[in-house]
Design brief:
Radius of gyration: 20 Å
Bound molecules: NADPH dihydro-nicotinamide-adenine-dinucleotide phosphate
Helix content: 40-55%
Largest sheet: 6 strands, parallel
Number of strands: 9
Length: 297
């Protein structure tokens, strides 16, 4: 890591706390809305680039954390694009929860310019990003993973090489599809239990000492739904995107996915009703309003 210049592009809800773990004297940041990059630089001391090209110029490592692979791919081209600034031998780490096919295409394009690529999506939420304890699942060849690991270790506590390019994104999509299914199942089950006269907190305490427990029942619902706080840390629109990627993976591999298809449809409906800035857990709000009950306690 020492002596290497790093660029980070995409200072959103998770990108900003991740970038805050990188050494400020070696760091250049770029964000589409420049004011966010400037606020980050004031707080952390990094340099602000005016364009992706400027961020990439002179950088040994470039990290991206954008909504989807589409936005990452769109940053490559044009006079101000990343490819205009990146030099041969650079390392490109995409921390977006992206899609495997686009990552394979990106990796092939970048290889033609002498640039190594890894997909390195993260899990652990904004709290994990702040604490530097993210799980990071890396799709890359062995040599690229060895180069990526020390940089990713600044932001995460579990850095796992899960397979070739694209496999980090595939694993992340399946993980998040499981999260989506859990949110819906816990929301539906609790709504019914509350209507049947069981206190939501009591129901969760018993479930969390039983075989139905999950991260959703143990942490997310008690901290965010029962309290009525509904903090916005991870947009529902992004989780819907992840379920879509997982559904694509099932199709590509010839696995029937009726459960994920239904989760995708329900999250698509939630996105249409609740909008682009709603938090992922707000899918439970729709279950509440559809069933005429509040899950609190
Ligand atoms: P946000 O919506 O908070 O931030 C998105 C970032 O992408 C912002 O910096 C935004 O810039 C930028 N951006 C959006 N559109 C474009 C574009 N067309 N061109 C260039 N930049 C663009 O998302 P998150 O930070 O929450 O998520 C980023 C990625 O990380 C997603 O793939 C998400 O699924 C994943 N993720 C998120 C987690 C979370 O808890 N939030 C957890 C794990 C993974 P601007 O400031 O201008 O809007």
């Amino acid at each position: 890591m020492s002596g290497r210049r790093v660029a980070f592009l995409g200072l959103g809800a998770i990108g900003a706390p991740m970038a805050a773990h990188l050494p400020a004297d070696a760091l250049t940041v770029w964000n589409r809305t420049r004011a966010r990059a400037e606020a980050f630089a004031r707080a952390h001391g990094a340099r602000v680039a005016a364009t992706p090209r400027e961020a990439a110029a002179g950088s040994d490592v470039v990290l991206t954390c954008l909504p989807t692979s589409r936005e990452v791919e769109a940053l490559l081209d044009g006079p101000d694009g990343l490819l205009a600034g990146l030099g041969r031998g650079a390392l490109f780490l995409d921390c977006t929860s992206g899609d495997p096919a686009t990552s394979r295409r990106l990796a092939a394009r970048l290889a033609g310019h002498g640039i190594a690529f890894a997909d390195a999506p993260v899990s652990g939420g904004t709290n994990g990003a702040e604490a530097g304890t993210l799980a990071i699942m890396v799709g890359a060849d062995e040599e690229t993973f060895a180069r990526a690991r020390p940089i990713l270790a600044l932001m995460g506590s579990r850095i796992e090489h899960v397979g070739p390019v694209g496999s980090g994104h595939a694993l992340k999509a399946v993980n998040n599809a499981l999260l989506a299914v859990n949110i819906l199942a816990v929301g539906e089950g609790l709504a019914a239990l509350v209507k049947a006269g069981v206190r939501a907190r009591t129901a969760l305490e018993v479930i969390n000492a039983s075989s139905g427990r999950s991260f959703v029942s143990e942490t997310l619902v008690p901290e965010r739904v029962l309290t009525g706080m509904w903090p916005r840390t991870f947009r529902l629109a992004l989780l819907e995107k992840d379920v879509g990627i997982a559904r694509g993976l099932l199709r590509e591999t010839g696995v029937d996915g009726p459960l994920l298809d239904l989760a995708g449809e329900l999250f698509g409906r939630a996105r249409a009703i609740l909008g682009e800035s709603a938090d992922h857990l707000e899918a439970i709000r729709l279950i509440e309003s559809d069933s005429g009950v509040e899950i609190r306690g």
